[in-house]
Amino acid sequence: MKRKIRMGMVGGGPGAFIGDVHRMAARLDGMIELVCGAFSSHPDKNRAAGNSLFLPESRCYDTFEEMFEKEKSLPEGERMDFVSITTPNHLHAPIALKALQNGFHVVCEKPMTLTVEEAEALAAEVERSGLLFCLTHNYTAYPMIRTAGQMIRAGELGSIRRIMVEYPQGWLADAVTPDNIQGSWRTNPVTSGVSCCMGDIGSHSENLAEFITGLKISELCANIKSFVPGRLLDDDGDVLLKFDNGAIGSLSASQIAVGEENALKIRVYGTKAAIEWNQQTPESLVIKYNDRPMQIMRRNWAGAGGRWSRLPAGHPEGFIEAFGNLYRDMALAIDARMQGVEYKTEFPTVHDGLRGVRFIHAVVASKGQWIKL
Amino acid sequence: MKRKIRMGMVGGGPGAFIGDVHRMAARLDGMIELVCGAFSSHPDKNRAAGNSLFLPESRCYDTFEEMFEKEKSLPEGERMDFVSITTPNHLHAPIALKALQNGFHVVCEKPMTLTVEEAEALAAEVERSGLLFCLTHNYTAYPMIRTAGQMIRAGELGSIRRIMVEYPQGWLADAVTPDNIQGSWRTNPVTSGVSCCMGDIGSHSENLAEFITGLKISELCANIKSFVPGRLLDDDGDVLLKFDNGAIGSLSASQIAVGEENALKIRVYGTKAAIEWNQQTPESLVIKYNDRPMQIMRRNWAGAGGRWSRLPAGHPEGFIEAFGNLYRDMALAIDARMQGVEYKTEFPTVHDGLRGVRFIHAVVASKGQWIKL
Amino acid sequence: MKRKIRMGMVGGGPGAFIGDVHRMAARLDGMIELVCGAFSSHPDKNRAAGNSLFLPESRCYDTFEEMFEKEKSLPEGERMDFVSITTPNHLHAPIALKALQNGFHVVCEKPMTLTVEEAEALAAEVERSGLLFCLTHNYTAYPMIRTAGQMIRAGELGSIRRIMVEYPQGWLADAVTPDNIQGSWRTNPVTSGVSCCMGDIGSHSENLAEFITGLKISELCANIKSFVPGRLLDDDGDVLLKFDNGAIGSLSASQIAVGEENALKIRVYGTKAAIEWNQQTPESLVIKYNDRPMQIMRRNWAGAGGRWSRLPAGHPEGFIEAFGNLYRDMALAIDARMQGVEYKTEFPTVHDGLRGVRFIHAVVASKGQWIKL
Amino acid sequence: MKRKIRMGMVGGGPGAFIGDVHRMAARLDGMIELVCGAFSSHPDKNRAAGNSLFLPESRCYDTFEEMFEKEKSLPEGERMDFVSITTPNHLHAPIALKALQNGFHVVCEKPMTLTVEEAEALAAEVERSGLLFCLTHNYTAYPMIRTAGQMIRAGELGSIRRIMVEYPQGWLADAVTPDNIQGSWRTNPVTSGVSCCMGDIGSHSENLAEFITGLKISELCANIKSFVPGRLLDDDGDVLLKFDNGAIGSLSASQIAVGEENALKIRVYGTKAAIEWNQQTPESLVIKYNDRPMQIMRRNWAGAGGRWSRLPAGHPEGFIEAFGNLYRDMALAIDARMQGVEYKTEFPTVHDGLRGVRFIHAVVASKGQWIKL
Q1: Residue C194, Cβ neighbours under 10 Å: how many?
Q2: Distance between CA A343 and CA A332 in Å, rounded?
Q3: What is the distance, to the nearest Å, from the Cα of residue B253 to the centroid of all Cα atoms in its chain?
């Protein structure tokens, strides 16, 4: 690389969760430098965030519009190269659109937009602009998930028949108090969109199932529910799935599954072998056979996951390192563009984002009936 | 106990699987003695079975009708006290009915009957006769399942919201060859009934979910499929569930889940706590909380499961011991009747069997639509 | 088999633990019938045991001497074929010697005797009499241990370099109250011998290490300790090991390891591969490689452990089933003798017992110095 | 914090492993900036490293002496605040001494020095200078280890009786080829010191055992061995331990344990409870009791480990994050000094380093006999 890639950030002010994760992930490999931000719509919080991140006041902007405007006017190599959008859901679309229109590459949180129309418009803008757009479906970037995807696409499981994906959490089992910032905006239709549980973690599950298998969900039938009294959006649900190759399966997501942390788990069964992976033990990929002992593939052992690893096997990597793979990919892609060389990105794209928004809307529209996706 | 309880058996001849399990389970506690049998419709196999079990030829009967007839004429204390029915599904109903009509208590394999009508008739006959009827939904007899059931009914989980049960197997992933006796009759509608996968292991899942929670499935929506070419019955499927208290959840069962053994697993989430249990690690019951560390309750440790245990914690008990709990329960119940004392059985009954048959038929009838149970 | 094999039992009266296990194990396969016993030195308890086991009073003997005397005079096919000795340690030697002298095969609990001299005398008597002698180091009879032993002896691990075996328990962490029958005799030098912890479970560890590898401990250095005030025998300790092929390793055993059940675990590292097995998850055998993913071999899956199995993979077998393998082996061996055919036993022998007693005495004599075994 | 803390690095050039880890750990929280380095004694490699890290050529020094000299002359806020030493073992002492003499705080890899004399000299220089010295026994910085240490020191385990620590690796099971840079210097007495296995990972085990319990090893008896032909240093061994409070236990370390990654595991048994932790599953801390179910404490769940966490429970943190806790601690400590406020560091110190070197030398000197530490 010629130089560090320069990042701006929208969102991620005090009290946010995912903004910090993005920053740690961006720092990890020393390829990216945070140069500016519009961290909060509260000017005080925005300045506080900028200070704690050692940014000069001049590059701590009151609004994303101002940021894009002013950064655009800075010389290349000084201005930001890309923006990272870590706001609540309803702001993803306007910010991302504006960023692209101003010539900035985008890293954007999921779900990509509130509506299918917004998602389509964003996809069109990415196409038009030719800029890079990375949607942070970060689970796809775990080394053993990448290895699993390679195995499946190479036919090592045979023809896929059954896919089971689940994402149980327990953190919204009770009514949300106002100081729970994360819970408050996620359970609010204005900021979260038509769905809470399926939008937040159901969409991760859908994305992972399609990413790892290369298949598409063709039809679904969903039973979603809001358990906590007064809650306006779903906090729990199950979905029957049909895939475009004839495989079937299920997707379950819950935010009221008491005692569960972030137990995203996926199982894929083919005619020859099966795989199982759990986000809480991400360093292992279980391969099962009918005619042989099961194997536990481990990151950076016997070649597995090595290309996406940073450490020897047995020294645990985790969430930040996986997230960091998205940022590294983005940094390398921007660098390649600057140097005019070919580079094939591996991060989820605007098309994954569009698909995710369609999935969320189909789940909500299903009301217990089958619906095509 | 005054004397050993005397058992006859129908089915369980050479090549059978579950007959052997019943015999080991019946022997385990030294309370039950096998005194007669009609093990196979092939006279040679029947004699061979009788010989290997050290039975006199005179009590190795060609047919179950003959067995019931002749045993009935023997004096009490010599004749069999109960019959254990371990044949393919289609024979359960006629044998059980005949046994009850001849005054014998019954232990019967599941699914109880092929049709709902048969199941209702059998339930009526049990009521009429006042005899004991134990359906071998053996998973309900694992010590930690019994403990889980007690906890849930005592309110330790709060109000139940989500139930997830699954039973993946891989043994029928390919077409069945004729020498696969178990596979052959299970995939044949004549001997197996309207369903293979949901009848064989879906019904175990349904039963376990209702047993452990005390709730009833009120409505379901099923997506079942037959993956292996030429197979006439389902070998895979998922079911959306609604329970009578408002809880929701899912049930998945598969016989084409390559690499899976008998991974029956149940999770129940309440407002206060959750439990998780897996048949392949049956000695542990995981209890999860939002506000406390999770606990691993272990059989015969700190009181858990102790009443249904035979060994100290850490000396593994398993499938046979759980199955043996059903037989011990039956033996103690018969002994109590002989002695004229009260005894409260804990084994699954003809009503569980009727419910299971209704479940199987509802799943098959659903065809992707919601159906009341 | 021609007929059931007939078993007598010494020990195993009310309050005993291991006697019940022996009886369940002996019953499991329907090959063995309990025909007589001297269960307790208390006549009342003895009768009570006999009654609960449905034995006639005439075959419930006051002493083992009487039992051997009277049984010897019964006709073959009526008299007992072998005796099972499940008393506290100090009685093993006199009972076993007397049984052999009276022509009965023997199944005997471990440690085999209190002293090396007794052990040598017993070994000589077994040689002289030509009778069968099975020492119940039951852990050697787990299917996956048998499979591990085969693999190691077939060279699949390469040359063995490191062996780690441990057996932590917590049940004697506090002073023993008189109603704790198991704890009372085990902590009493009169009934237990020179060691408690190393005698009871250290000897299982030593036996398993030598059984599974075929190697012999050539030298050891032990650090044992009695933690509970007033306790006369060791309740905890570690031993450095050297094996006859140059391998090294360690053995740890504890009865004060609070929270531990019966976590016997063995790991063997060779030049090519390693194995790991834990008694509390006995259905799995982990195989590790430097150049390949680790494998989890499972009982009755892809051939592993199948010969010593009773159930399909995933239907858990456990402690009783493993113990039952010793009894089945004994029954088949006695039957083979009756029929005059060859039969190769797989159970631990009097020589394993002698070696175990030598190990216990070496550990106690070591006092932190190296001692040859 | 007023400004980012400025780091220089010695070692960590191309082909090194741990240098990269230090840099990722230092970057993670955005508090530390790498400003200079002497990464390799090969000038070309040194420049290459500097370039890839985006350092100006002027601050990429040929030698550590030059680095200290030149940096010292820069103004505060521009010059480095501390140096991170990630060279092979033999260089730790001279570099660290020189750094301290030039007024720089030090982060230093372990084992701290080759000899006890060097270690004592370094400890004296730290005392004399009053500068900060952090030894990267990084395992002590895992959140659940910190929680375990708090629990033990608060008496929640009661009085400690047994400590078992082990660190098996398999990566040196075969002879090292020259391109294996890590293996080459570690097996070379000139660069590694008197021990390979016990120096590299035995010392981590010793440190963790003492850190977590607050106890000191008072006496040890070691059996170490070099298995690979031609290897000059130990690659495997076991150590019997006595602690200053009367507890006993064992320490095993191996680099020839085929199939093992970095399976550092510690168990501590007290009179009331026990803990178990494994580096490969670092997010869980198992607490065991005799009279209650075991608990699995999880990072950032119900308060455990939260203070040292960056992510919600269930989003795995790992090795880099733990390492990052040492760097964050150092950064906060330097900042506190700059601001003149009190700050209590939690990182391992020069005294831990001295103790580690003494441990290594005692193990090597033991030759199977007890030796005081």
Answers
A1: 18
A2: 8
A3: 16
Closest by Cα among D208, D210, D201, D205 to D142: D208
Q: What residue in B sits closest to A171 (Cα-Cα)?
A: B290
Chain B touching partners, 3 or more CB pairs below 8 A? A, C, D
Q: Determine which helix (DSSP H) or strand (DSSP E) holds D161, and give its type and residue range.
A: strand D160-168
Q: C15 Cβ partners below 8 Å, 6+ apart?
A: C181
A293-350, pLDDT tens digit by residue? 999 999 999 999 989 999 999 999 999 999 999 999 999 999 999 999 999 999 999 9
- D298 with B293: Cβ contact below 8 A: yes
Asked if the model's pLDDT at residue B14 lies above 90, the reply is no
Using CB atoms within 10 Å of the CB of residue B138, give its burial: 0 to 12 exposed, 13 to 18 middle, 19+ buried: buried
Q: Do B298 and D302 touch (CB under 8 A)?
A: no
- Cα–Cα distances in angstroms (integers) from residue C41 to residues C11, C12, C117, C178, in the given order: 8, 11, 26, 18
Q: Are B258 and A289 in contact (CB < 8 Å)?
A: yes
Which domains does chain A show, CATH number per domain?
5-139+322-342 (3.40.50.720), 143-311+354-372 (3.30.360.10)
Number of C/D CB contacts below 8 angstroms equals: 121
**Per-position b or e across A283-311, b if 16+ CB within 10 A of its CB:** bbbbbbbbeebbbbbbbbbeebbeebbbb
Report helix angle D92-101 to D116-129, nearest 10. 20
Number of H helices, E strands in chain A: 12, 14
Q: How far is C93 from chain B (nearest CA, A)?
A: 26
Long-range contacts of B61-70 (CB under 8 A, 24+ apart): B61/B36, B61/B37, B62/B38, B63/B38, B64/B10, B64/B38, B64/B95, B64/B98, B64/B99, B65/B98, B66/B38, B67/B8, B67/B10, B67/B36, B67/B37, B67/B38, B68/B98, B68/B99, B68/B102, B68/B104, B69/B102
Measure CA C219 to chain center: 23
Which are the contacts of C63, defined by CB distance < 8 A and separation ≥ 6? C38, C41
ipTM: 0.97
Confidence of residue C313 (pLDDT cuts 50, 70, 90): very high
The answer to whether the predicted template modeling score (pTM) of the entire model surpasses 0.90 is yes
User: Would you call C291 and A302 a contact, using CB atoms and an 8 Å cutoff?
Assistant: yes
CB A113 within 8 A of CB A135: no
Is residue C258 within 8 Å of residue D241, measured between CB atoms?
no
Neighboring chain A residues of C301 at a CB cutoff of 8 Å: 293
Nearest-CA distance B75 → chain C (Å):
19
Contacts of C260 in chain D (CB under 8 A): 269, 274, 288
- What's the pLDDT tens digit per position in B102-148? 999 999 999 999 999 999 999 999 999 999 999 999 999 999 999 99
- Within 8 A of C297 by CB-CB distance, chain A residues are 293
Calculate the dihedral angle through the C-alpha atoms of B21, B24, B26, B27, rounding to the nearest 10 degrees: 170
Q: Do A221 and B225 touch (CB under 8 A)?
A: no
Share of chain B above pLDDT 70, in %: 100
CB B257 within 8 A of CB B225: no
Taking the C-alpha atoms of residue B160 and residue B268, their distance in angstroms, rounded to an integer, is 7
Amino acid at C218: S
Give residue for tokens 């404490």. D297
Number of neighbours of residue C221 by Cβ within 10 angstroms: 26
Give the neighbours of chain D: at least 3 Cβ pairs within 8 Å.
A, B, C
Largest interatomic CA distance in chain A: 65
Give ∠ CA B109-B112-B115 in degrees, rounded to 5.
Answer: 150
Measured between CA atoms, the residue of chain B closest to residue C264 is: B314
Structure tokens at B275: 């439990």
- Say which of C164, C260, C270 has its CB closest to residue D258: C270
For C174-217, the pLDDT digits (tens) are 999 999 999 999 999 999 999 999 999 999 999 999 999 999 99
